[in-house]
Amino acid sequence: MTSGRTADGSAGDADYGTIGGAYAAYRRPEPRIAALIEQALAGARTVLNVGAGAGSYESSAFEVTPVEPSASMRAQRPAHLPAAVDAVAEDLPFPDDTFDAAMTTFSVHQWNDVQAGLREVRRVTRGPVAVLTCDPDLVRDFWLYEYAPLVLDTEARRYPSIDVITEALGGHADVTTVPIPADCVDGFNEAYYARPEMLLDPAARQSCSSWSFVEPDLARQYTERLAQDLTSGAWDQRHGHLRRQPHLSGSLVLVRAS
Ligand SMILES: C[S@@+](CC[C@H](N)C(=O)[O-])C[C@H]1O[C@@H](n2cnc3c(N)ncnc32)[C@H](O)[C@@H]1O
How far is the CA of 231 from the centre of ligand 1 (A)? Predict the structure, then answer.
């Protein structure tokens, strides 16, 4: 075991050796989000993907070099994608200006030192850096906060502010809200805004690392209340309109620094 990393190699604040088993099944790349990332990196040939996990959002339009510290996540990469380099964002094993562009998706909130990690990404990248993440100021606006406050408090605490990300990448970035489709196939919490029943599935919750920070008994209480409100119709009375809403503008953002 490397210092600061679990037996699985996980380097962030979540242990994917424990929670990562069903990740690739529940966290599939959402094509409409993938298109926005590809657009943000347009013109690049070589792309670094940090915290690459099982390979979501790696486009065949680019020559991608994935970096991923967790063995469980590396093992879930499909055979057609390149094998990931076992390294961490904070210490990237590449010379300065190696890549045309870089990306990181749903990862920066887990890094031990997000500023150091993003400075490293900037160091090894000549062109744009795209960061798909959540704005911590907006995380608690989601209806799930009524049911699982500690889960979203945890998310809000973990996500770095957009200012911190922008500063670490050199001080200038475009920030775009990413619309979340109602049938989003990448199962982060807000992806289920119109399908609350999905959050009753333990494997769906396990694939969102914030649930792993809450005691199992408390998580059970949270989901029991949600189940009761779905059975009684109370959830639909308050939020049922979302079932017919094609997109959610929630906390998901794409930060693009050039
Ligand atoms: C929620 S997963 C996202 C995976 C993938 N990017 C995606 O969009 O599905 C977060 C990933 O970040 C990785 N990670 C955590 N800390 C890291 C660090 N310090 N450097 C690089 N990757 C890290 C985890 O091992 C995990 O695979």
Answer: 36
Report CA dihedral (225, 229, 234, 240) to the nearest 10 degrees.
110
Query: Does residue 254 sit in helix, strand or coil?
Result: strand
Our CA dihedral for 71, 13, 37, 197, rounded to 10 degrees, sits at 100
Q: What is the pTM of this model?
A: 0.93
Q: Which residues line ligand 1 (CB under 6 A)?
A: 10-12, 16, 27, 50-53, 56-57, 67-70, 73, 88-90, 105-107, 110-112, 117, 209
One pLDDT digit (tens) per residue for the chain, 258 residues: 344 767 777 766 766 666 566 777 899 999 999 999 999 999 999 999 999 999 999 999 999 999 999 998 999 899 999 999 999 999 999 999 999 999 999 999 999 999 999 999 999 999 999 999 999 999 999 999 999 999 999 999 999 999 999 999 999 999 999 999 999 999 999 999 999 999 999 999 998 989 999 999 999 999 999 999 999 999 999 999 999 999 999 999 999 999
> Using CA atoms, how far apart are residues 168 and 43, in angstroms rounded to an integer?
23
129 bridge partner residues: 102, 257
Helix axes 149-158, 216-232, angle to 10 degrees: 120
Atom of ligand 1 nearest to the CA of 12: 16
Give the chain's domains with CATH numbers.
16-257 (3.40.50.150)
Biggest CA pair distance of the chain = 59
Cα separation, 220 vs 10, in Å, equals 26
